[in-house]
Amino acid sequence: MMVEKLSYQQVRKVCTFGLECGSTKELPPLEGIIGQDRAVKALLFGLNIEESGFNIYVSGYQGTGRETATVSFLEEIAQNKTTPSDWCYVYNFQDSYRPRALKIPAGKGRLLKEDMGFFVENAKRTLVAVFDSEDYSQKRGAVIERINMEREDLSRKIAETAKQKGFAFQRTQTGIFIVPVVQGETLKEEDLAELPEMTKQELQERRRQLEDELRTTMRQLRDLERKADAEIAELNRQVTLYTIEPLVVGLLEKYGEIESVKKYIEEVREDMIRNLNLFLEPVAEEEKPRQFPFPMPRAAEFSMKRYDINVIVDNSEIKGAPVVIEPSPSYANLVGRIEKEAQFGALITDFTLIRGGALHRANGGYLVMHIENLLADPLAWDILKRSLTNELIIIEDLAERIGVLPTKSLRPEPIPLKMKVILIGNPQLYYALYRLDKDFSELFKVKADFDTVMDLNDKNAKDYASFVCTFCRKEGLKHLNASALARMIEYSSRLAEDQMKLSTRFGQVADIIREASFYAGQEGEEYISEKHVKKALEEKVYRSNLIQERIQEMITRGQLLVDTEGENVGQVNGLAVISLGDFEFGSPSRITASIAMGKDGQLVDIERESEMGGNIHTKGVLIIGGYLSERYAQNAPLSLSARLVFEQNYSGVEGDSASSAELYALLSAISGLPVKQYIAVTGSVNQKGEIQPIGGVNSKIEGFFEVCKKKGLTGKQGILIPHSNMQNLMLNDEVVEAAKEEKFHIYAVKTIDEGIEVLTGVKPGTRKLDGTYEEGTVNDLVQKRLLKMAENLKQYSG
After folding, report:
1. Active-site residue list
2. Burial, 542: exposed, middle or buried (Cβ in 10 Å; 0-12, 13-18, 19+)?
3. Which fold has domain 18-35+451-544?
4. For 17-30, what is each residue's pLDDT tens digit?
5. Does the predicted model carry a pTM greater than 0.85?
C-alpha cells in the first residue's frame, strides 16, 4: 500500500502571480470590493427596492470589508437620491403639552429659525416704540377720556337722583353708603331712630328705590369699564396688527407655499396679539429689585420661548439622501429625548428641549448600525421595530416608557418615517434573530452575506493588488514591491487555510502591511519588500506565543510527557489546537489505550467519564467502536474492554480530530505492535475507516515541528494528516525548508490502514473470503487477539 509523502512544493503553494510593474504604487486603485459578488448583489437589491420591510442584514465577520463595502455603496447610491425635508418642533398654541412637528424643505429649517428670531425681535422693538409713541397715547387717551365723560355723566345723574330723593352718597374704605339728608344735614343713626314711624317707612321706601337705581348705574359703570377695556384691546389689536403685519407678510412671502408653516405663522400672529403684554415689559431686568443673590429668569422670557423654532433635523449641508452611522444605538440615541432643566429644585421642560435621534437624522435615507450594539439595549431594539412597523418616530420620555415615575410631560407629534435600515452583524446573530424574533423576518427581508474567503485566480489576485495599492494610499503607507505582494497573497491563503482561496479578512492583512511599512521605514527603504513582510509575520507571532514557548519548554524538560523518538505500544502523539484569541498554535498530546477482556466491546472514554470530554469527542469514540465491530466482530463477539485517555490533560477535550489517533493507539494495544513516537497524528475517522479532514492543520503541523526542533530533529520525525487536508497546507518557511531537506516528513493518508502502516511499518492486510486477514499483518494480529480474548472470556464464564 503506497502512502503519499508530500514534497516541499506540496506543503505550501507559492504565489506565481507577478506584477506588471515594480510596485503597487503604479497600480490603479481598487473600484468596489473584491470577492463578495453574492453580498454586493444582495446589497444593491436591498438598497434600490423601495417597498417597506426590505431592510438589510449584512452578515459577515469583522475584517471582511462588510462595513466598508456597505457604506461605500450607500454613499454612492445616496448621492442620486432626493435630499429629505428638515423637521422642526414648534409650540402648540392650543395644547402646550403636544408640540407640533413641521415638515420643511431641506435647508429651510435653519433659515426659518433665524427668520422667526429676527421677526420676534423686530416685532418687540417696533411694538415697544409704537406703544410708547405720542400718537398711540393720544388715541388711548381719547378712548379713556370719552369713557370717563360717560362715567362722570352717570355719576352726576345718580347723585342728582339721590338728592331729589333726600339722600346722599357717602364713600368709605368699605364701600358706598346711602345716607338720608334733611335740610342739608346728613342724619345720624340716633337721629334716624327719633323720627316718626311713618317718616322712617317713607325714607326706607325711597332708599330702596334709590338702591335699585344705584345698582343699575353701577352695572352701567361696569359696562363702561368693560367697554373701555374692549376698545383699548381693539385699539391695541389694530395697532399691533398694523405694526407686525409687514413683518408677517414678509414671512408669508418667503414660506407661504409651505402650508404647515403658513398656518403656524398665522397662529403666531394671533398669539402675539393676544399676548401683547409679553412684548411690553414695563420694568427692565436691571431696574428690578434683586431679591436673590443669583439671576432670576423672568416669566416673559419663558413665555417668549414659545416663538422659537426647534430644528431637530437640518439637512442644509447634505447632498442627496443622508447616510447615518450610529455607533451607540441606545433608545434615546435612536428616537431622541426630551431633556429637562433644573430650576429652583424642579425639573422643567418645553418643546425647545426636544432632541432628535438617529432615526430623525436618517429619515429619508439610510441608517447603519452594528446589531451587537443595538441588542445591548433591549428598549432600542424594541423601539426600532415599532418605528419601522408603524412608520412613525414617536419621542417618549424614557422613564414613562419603562413605567417608572410617570409624570406629566410633553408628547411631541409623531414624525412619519421612511428609511432603510442596514444592520451589520455576524451570521450567528442573524440565525438567532430569524428563529426567535417573529418580527425580524418581516422587517429585514434582505441578507447580504459576506464570505471569509474568495477564489485565488488571476482576476482576484490583480484586484487584491489594487486593494493593497488603495489601502497604502489611503493610510499613507509605503507600497509593496512584487516579492512583498506575493508573500502577502500567500499569507492571505494561509489565513483562508486553503491553497485555492484568499482570505477576505482584510483587517488582518492590513495590520501586517502597516507593520511591514513600519519596518521598511526604519530601514529607510522606499518600498516594502518580502523581508519586511516576513519580519512582520514573525514579530506578530513572537508577541503572542509566550504560552506556546512555555508548553514547549515543559515538553523538552520532561514535565509534559511527549516522545519524539522510539516506539511504544498503545501510545500515539495526537495534536490539538490551542486558541488564545489573537493567536493559535498546535500542541502535541500523548494518547494512550489500555485493553482487557470484556463484554460487548466496551470502550471507556476516560475524558467523558471524568466530565472533561465534549459531545463531539464522545461521538468520535463511539465511532471507533463502530469501526471495530464492523471489521473484527463479524464472526465472534467483540470481547474487549478498552480505555482511552489524553494523558496530562487538565482542561478538557472537544472535537473528533483525534479520533484516528485514538484508534491507532487502540489497534497498537490490541495487536501488540509498537507505534513510532516520532510521527504525530491528526484526523477524524468514520465507521468505514476513512480519514476525514480537520481544521487547524497548519498550526498542528508547525506545533509538532517546533517540539521536534526543541528536542532535536533526527530526520525521521513527521506527521500524518488526512489526504483531503493537502489543499489546506500553507506552512511557514521553516517547516517547508525542513521538508525540502528531508528532516521532517508529512504523510497524507486516506484510510486507517494507510496510517497504521506508516506508524508501525507493518502492512495492514486485506480481508480474505473466509473473513480472515493475511498472516502477520496488523489486521490479522488484531483479529487473532480479539478471538483469543473471546475464547478466554468464554472459558472464564463457563
Report:
1. 657, 700
2. exposed
3. Helicase, Ruva Protein; domain 3 (1.10.8)
4. 777 778 888 888 88
5. no
